[in-house]
Amino acid sequence: MPREMSDTPEASELETIVDLRSDTVTKPTPEMRRAMAEAEVGDDVYGEDPTVNRLEARAAEVFCREAALFVPSGTMGNQIAIKCFTHHGNEVICEEAGHIYNYEMAAMSALSGCIARVIRGQDGVLTWAMIEPQIRPKIYYRAQTGLISLENTHNMAGGTVYPQEIADEICGKAHERGLPVHLDGARIFNAAVAQGKSVRELSSKFDSVMFCLSKGLGAPVGSMLVGSREFIEKARVYRKMFGGGMRQAGVLAAAGLIALEKMPQRLVKDHQNARRLAEGLASIRGIRIDAAKVVTNIVILDVKDTSKTAAQVSSAMKERKILANPTSAFTLRMVTHLDVDESGIERALAAMREITRS
Question: What predicted TM-score, i.e. pTM, was given to this entire model?
Answer without folding.
Answer: 0.93
